[in-house]
Each structure stands twice: as C-alpha cells, then as structure tokens.
Design brief:
heterodimer; A: about 400 residues; alpha+beta; 6-stranded mixed β-barrel; B: about 240 residues; alpha/beta; Rossmann fold; 6-stranded mixed beta sheet; about 35% helix; globular; cell membrane (chain A)
C-alpha cells in the first residue's frame, strides 16, 4: 500500500513537473548550499592538515612574547633572541635535530632595469635543512659566508621570474636595498602556503648580513627547530622551554616571555577557525531549507484545494481519511526528498567544482549527505502535515460538489 | 450477514437531515421511511429541493442523517463514524454521478482500479478486474484513454465500470444521464438493466428527473418536502 501511495505521489508530481520543480527549488538550493559549504569546508580543513604535515609535524617555532594575548600581556616588551640562543638549542638539546634563526623584513630587489618588492628572510644554512627545502641550482650558504656576513643570497622562483625571466640567476649580482649581493642558489618552487602566501616570493640572506646591513641590531626574530625523527615534540618543547627560561633568567613562578608552538597547534587553530566559518555558513544555508519547506507547504495547500474533487472521488469510492492524509503526506515527502536528492547532487557538483578551483581536496562526507537526505524528508513531513490534514478532513459531499 | 427474510437490504425509518440552525434551518429530509429490497431497481424523482439528492447521499453513506434509523444489510449505520462509512462504501456501494467524476489526466483503467486499490487488492488482480469491468461496459480497447479523450457517454461508462469493479451490492446513480443526449442516455440505461440481468441480486438506486429514464426502473419513488409522496410502478406515478 505504501508503495502504491509512493507511485501515486510520483504520478501526481510528474503530472505537473515544472510546478513541482519550482516548488522544490527552495529545498534544492538549501540542501545544495549546506552540502557545498560542508564539503568545501571539510576539504579546506584537510588541505590545512596535509599542508602542515608537509611542512613537517616535527617543526617547532619559537618566538618572543607570551602565547597569551590580550590585556595584561607584555608582548612588546619581550626580549628578542640572540644568535647564541639558537646555537645552544641546537647543541644542548639532544632531541633537537637542528635549529635555525629567522628574521624577516621586506625590501626592493633590483637587477638591471627590473625591480621587485619581496620578502627577505634572514637565516643560515640550517634553515633549508630543517625545512627540507631543496635547491634546484647553486648551493646553500657556507660557514664562512655566515660568519662574515658576506653579501650572498638565495632566491625563490617568483623573484627569479620577476628579475631574470627564464634566465639563470646563479652567479649574478642583484641589489637588495643598499646591498649588492651575489646570487648563490635558487630554491625549488613550493607554491602557495596554507595561509595563501606565495612561499617562492622570497630572498634569503645570511643572518649576520641581515643584522648588520638591514636590521642594524643583533636580534633574532624567531627560531625554527626541527625535532629528531621519532622524538616527542612535547618532550622537546619542555626541554627548550626550560633552557630558554634559564638563558632568559625567568624566575620560577613567572610566565614565559616567549612561546614555542608546533605545527599541530597551528593546524588545529586554523582548522578550528575553518570549522567555525563552515558551521556559520551552513547555518545560514539551513535557513533556506526552512524557506524551501514553507514553499512546499504553500504548493501542497494549493494542490489540496485544486484537487478537492479528486479527494471527493477517492472518499466516495471508499478511501478513509487516514489514506487521503497519507497520500498527501507521502506526496509532500516524496517531493521534498526529490528536492533533497537534486540538492545533494547539485551541492556535491558545486563542491567538486569549487574544490578544483581552490585546489583543495574534494571531501564529500557521507554523514552529511545522509543527514541532508533525512532532513529533507523531515521538511516534507512537517510542511506536508498541515495540507494533508486539510485534505483528510474534507466532507465527501462538499468535495464532490466542488467545481 | 444474517438477513431476516423480512428485513430489506435498506431500511430507513424517520430519517431526518437538517442543515443550519434556528431561523436558517432547512429540513432536507423530514421523516423519510424507505425500504429497498435486494435486487430492486428504484428510481427517485421529485422537484428540486425535495430532498432526493440528500436521500441519495444518506443511502450512499456519504452523509449522516440528523435523526432516525438506517439499517443496511441489517446493521444500524446511522451513527457510524467517517471511516466506518468509508469502509461501507468501499465494500458494498458503487457510485455513478451526473458529472462522471473521473480523475482527470488518469487513464480509464487507472480510474476503474481506484476502488480496488483501497480494497487492498494485489496489482495483477486489480488490473484483471478493472479490465473485466471495462469490458462489461463495452470499453475494451479504451483502457489507456484519458477522460479528455473520451466522449461523455464513454466517460459515464468508465464511471460505471468503476462502480462495478468493486462488486458492490448497490449501485447509486445520481442523475447518471443528466449530461447526456437521448441516445447515450438510452445506452446507459440499457447497460444498467443489462447488469441486473447478469446479477439479479444487484440493487440499483437512481435519482433522475427524466420520466423516460425512470421508466427503466421497476419502482418509482416520488419525493416532496423531504418525504415520500408516492411510491409505485413507473409510468403510473408520473
């Protein structure tokens, strides 16, 4: 009997295909929006996670200033690191594979008639080892260059394209601000980072050169640490923490004036923001599902009135109120489910398209798809109930007389 | 269904049907007493407003009387609920209306199947019985026509097939020829009388305002003011 009713509902729906389609459009859009939001959100979360894994889950970043921000934090007053801090971390902590200093600034680089504003990263040879970043031409900094702060640099692919086009920069002299500098290496292209930043838009200088000629001090802005394979990052963090407290003479009970973050934390922070955004957008999209439901109710009410005579005929040949109610309820649910299925397909299609465009993984979530399906059925039941009841309560004589 | 020898299929006593209240009160039926025996072909006539359609609706369990008692097949049904009356219609009654009342955009076969769906018959049996009913009214070959593709007479025959398909005890026809020309009307009446020859137990109650049609019945009831004014053989009554 239920199958009969479903078949009947399908017949009624396809008898007026265009109107049925317009009726469920609200549900289609609502479901599609929710599915697309959640799928793209999931994809970008996955992307962040995999990006961070590529960066290395064994990477720690130490920066001056308290981890806690907001009122009462003394970020500005925190003492910067020095070169010897980096060396002590690298040498004294067994769990640490290597540590590299990092300073950054931006500057205009000039070659011939070309000039280009780019990111300056001051570091030493350990940085490329810690991050596993290979060179495609030339070589890394050597110890003499680092010690003397010689004017040499390594450049990223984007800078090369800007200054040299397709030419080979290694061995050429470029000007960085006031420094004339020999290009000794070219980095392998890495593409955009999780933050959407072009990682190849960079020129690397020895730390000492940067301190002397650009920053004018002996500060190290940040320390980059690679933990040994298989070693616990938490244990390494604890040891770094106590070493730095000792170096920076922080008495027990006082808060750290630096913070050590690992990539996992950064990843979870980013995916957290991502999840909140996805949730909020999905909630907005869900509102359109509600509006879609009201659209279904409206058309079902019209349909009940239009089909008054049909209801009368059915009652005359022996349909019970319950059966008439079922017919209209099933029709509303089938209509809404059709909308749901269309919406799921459309949503997944949009998500696939958007994922491709944003070059993030396409991550359809079966749970969400199932939930959207169930939700559209619920919409059908809720918004179909009132019209169905109106149909079931009709008086057969009145209904048969209806023109 | 233990039926008393003397108990007619339909027995109505003091049936009233009142619409509205107070000043606006209309007594469509005002103490109707009516017995109809199994196998009778009864025509009901009367001026408009005489209550013949209301009587038909009460007999057909589409409407509930305000007062009085109505035994169908020995069972008191005047106080049955909405759904119980639906069951009665489903199992014992078949309707033919003046305006055919077929489902639009639905094939003849599907229309005839309709009561059988509510009876809960399996699809194969439904189709077989619907085809047979269409054949009985001379519409074989038209099973897949929409009402809009059929003439008035053909539509009314589909309606008759629908009424017959459920193997009812009583066929209730409310001005079945009201929308048809004389030739089609005669065809319908011949069909009705033919059905009775095949099944002498089939009871037919028909409301009409045409003497020619009433002449096909074996009993004519003339109603005035919600009561029976005359009851006898057609021809003499008119």
């Amino acid at each position: 009997m239920l199958w009969e009713t479903v078949k009947l509902a399908l017949k009624a729906i396809f008898r007026n295909a265009l109107r049925s389609f317009l009726t469920v459009l609200g549900v289609v859009i609502g479901v599609a929006a929710v599915i697309a939001m959640v799928t793209v959100g999931q994809g970008s979360s996955d992307q962040v996670t995999s990006d961070v894994e590529k960066l290395g889950t064994n990477i720690l970043m130490i920066s001056p200033g308290q981890a806690r921000m907001g009122p009462g934090s003394s970020n500005a007053a925190s003492k910067p690191f020095e070169m010897k801090d980096v060396d002590r971390i690298a040498e004294e902590i067994a769990l640490v594979e290597t540590a590299a200093p990092m300073g950054s600034s931006s500057a205009t680089v000039v070659y011939g008639n070309e000039n280009y504003r780019t990111q300056i990263t001051a570091t030493d040879s350990r940085y490329l080892m810690a991050t596993d970043w290979p060179l495609i031409a030339g070589r890394n900094f050597n110890a003499a260059e680092e010690k003397a702060g010689r004017a040499v640099c390594i450049m990223g692919e984007t800078v090369r394209l800007e200054l040299f086009g397709s030419g080979d920069p290694v061995g050429q002299k470029i000007r960085i601000g006031a420094i004339s500098c020999e290009v000794i290496g070219l980095l392998e292209p890495k593409g955009a980072s999780t933050f959407g930043q072009d990682q190849d838009d960079v020129v690397m200088l020895p730390m000492r050169l940067f301190q002397r000629r650009i920053a004018g001090n002996r500060d190290v802005g940040m320390i980059y640490v690679a933990v040994r394979d298989g070693a616990s990052t938490d244990a390494a963090k604890a040891e770094i923490d106590s070493l730095l407290r000792e170096i920076r003479r922080i008495s027990p009970g006082e808060d750290d004036d630096f913070n050590v973050r690992d990539m996992k934390q950064i990843a979870s922070m980013l995916t957290g923001i991502n999840d909140v955004l996805t949730g909020m957008l999905s909630a907005v999209a869900a509102v359109s599902l509600l509006v879609g439901g009201i659209g279904i109710m409206n058309i079902m009410l019209v349909s009940v009135t239009e089909r008054t005579r049909e209801i009368g005929i059915r009652l005359a040949v022996g349909a019970q109120a319950r059966q008439v109610m079922m017919q209209f309820l099933v029709e509303a649910v089938v209509l809404s489910l059709l909308g749901g299925v269309l919406g799921i397909l459309l949503g997944l299609g949009l998500a696939a398209f958007a994922s491709n465009l944003m070059s993030i993984p396409f991550a359809p979530d079966p749970t969400v798809v199932l939930m959207a399906f169930a939700f559209s059925a619920v919409v059908g039941v809720i918004f179909g109930y009132f019209p169905a009841r109106a149909a079931a309560r009709m008086d057969p004589i009145e209904a048969l007389r209806h023109q | 269904m233990a039926e008393d020898e003397d108990m007619p299929l339909i027995r109505m006593r003091g049936i009233t049907r009142v619409y509205g209240k107070g000043e606006a009160e209309v007594r469509a039926l005002d103490g109707l007493d009516l017995d109809i025996r199994r196998g009778e072909f009864v025509a009901i006539m009367g001026p408009s407003g005489s209550g013949k359609s209301t009587a038909m609706n009460v007999i057909g369990c589409l409407d509930r009387p305000t007062g009085g008692s109505y035994h169908f097949n020995g069972v008191e049904i005047a106080r049955l609920s909405h759904d119980q009356r639906a069951l009665l219609r489903r199992n014992f009654l078949g309707f033919v209306f003046q305006g055919y009342n077929l489902l639009p955009r639905t094939t003849a076969l599907d229309n005839v199947e309709l009561p059988l769906i509510y009876k809960g018959l399996p699809p194969e049996e439904r189709i077989a019985r619907a085809r047979q009913a269409l054949q009985q009214v001379g519409l074989e070959g038209r099973e897949h026509h929409d009402p809009s593709q059929l003439s008035g007479g053909q539509q009314q025959r589909v309606a008759m097939a629908r009424a017959l398909a459920g193997s009812p005890e009583v066929i209730l026809a409310d001005e079945p020829t009201g929308n048809l020309d004389t030739r089609r009307s005669v065809e319908i009446m011949q069909l009705l009388t033919g059905l009775r020859q095949e099944n002498p137990d089939l009871t037919i109650v028909m409301v009409t305002h045409e003497d020619d049609m009433a002449a096909y019945a074996d009993r004519l009831i003339w109603m005035v003011d919600g009561k029976i004014a005359r009851d006898g053989r057609p021809g003499k009554a008119a």
